[in-house]
Design brief:
The chain contains six helices and five strands. By secondary structure, it is of the alpha/beta class. It is globular. It binds 4'-phosphopantetheine. 4'-phosphopantetheine is lined by residues 12-14, 41, 43, 77-78, 106, 109-110.
Length: 166
């Protein structure tokens, strides 16, 4: 019998901030793989609400129930981070049809960059298919109720951030 090789997956994103939609995907992916690394990076095209250390701390605070999940930051190409971590799969959440084109292009590009890593799409529960960190931030900044879309402690952090900026 050969040695068992741990199946490691990476769930990358900017997580600005983590939402219940992300947590739903984390739950699904962590049950499919031996180890799940949440890879947090800066999206250079977007100004973030939370800095990368705040985002990591927020994620760590909500994934404590999952023993095989850990949170790390990365810079540069996702595929290089995946190779560095010996991951065989990149996890991406797929919500509505409009996600598809962007996700398809990224998956194909990442495949071109490495044949050893595949992208696996998971769909969240129906109550989260329409949400994104950007939409949640926009609604929160304009005073709307986002309490069903983020955990309680994340909601408090968003509110605090918004009132500090006023
Ligand atoms: O939070 P997002 O915007 O859904 O995540 C996008 C992310 C971070 C996965 C993507 O921008 C990415 O992979 N960035 C790292 C740089 C990289 O590898 N770019 C080429 C992708 S084919």
């Amino acid at each position: 019998m050969g040695e068992y090789i741990m199946k490691i997956a990476i769930y990358p994103g900017s997580f600005d901030p983590i939402t219940n939609g992300h947590i739903d995907i984390i739950k699904r992916a962590s049950s499919l793989f031996d180890k799940l690394i949440i890879g947090v990076t800066d999206d250079n095209n977007k100004e973030s609400m939370f800095d990368i250390h705040e985002r990591v701390a927020m994620i760590e605070g909500v994934v404590t129930d999952y023993d095989n999940v850990n949170v790390q930051t990365f810079n540069g190409l996702l595929i290089d981070f995946a190779k560095l971590k010996s991951a065989v799969v990149i996890i991406r959440g797929l919500r509505v049809l409009s996600d598809f084109e962007y996700e398809f292009k990224m998956a194909m590009m990442n495949r071109r960059l490495s044949q050893k890593v595949d992208t696996l799409f998971l769909m969240p529960s129906i109550q989260y298919v329409h949400i994104s960190s950007s939409l949640i931030k926009e609604v929160a900044i304009l005073g709307g109720d986002i309490s069903t879309y983020v955990p309680r402690n994340i909601l408090d952090k968003i509110k605090r951030k918004i009132s500090a900026k006023k």
